[in-house]
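As a warm-up, study this chain.
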Amino acid sequence: MALEGIKAKMQQIRIQADEATAKVDELTAKVKTLEQENLAKEQEITSLTHKNSTHEADIEKLETANKDLKEQVDRFGNSGSQNEALQRRLQILEEEAEEADKNIRETNDKLRQTDVKAGHYERKVQALESARDQWEEKYEEMSKKYAQVKKELEEFQLEIGNI
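Now compare it with the structure written out below.
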């Protein structure tokens, strides 16, 4: 009768240990997936940062060209067709500068959004790692309990065998 109870207890502990192992495996897979997503987001941040610096350099070039053209316009005064051509070029450069500025704002917005997402994924990874650690502790406790019950069963069987 007591032997049946011990066997049932051992079976229950085995089931709990198997469930804990499955949960640890599942959480480990989730952590791995989130770490990969986090790496992809970090790469996207790096790419957007580079794109942002490229756009800033383009804006500086356009602003310099714009300044040069304004100086040329001032130098030449109202010299007819040349002045009109410079005015058109100046307008085109100003439009390009506005477009580059718009691209920088969009890139900065994307960078901020990606940074927020990366932070979110980092917090998620930390939470999953914490849960995994708790499951691993529970698994270790169950393994110890299993070993203890197994030892008690063996001792019990020895006592019964000696009787």
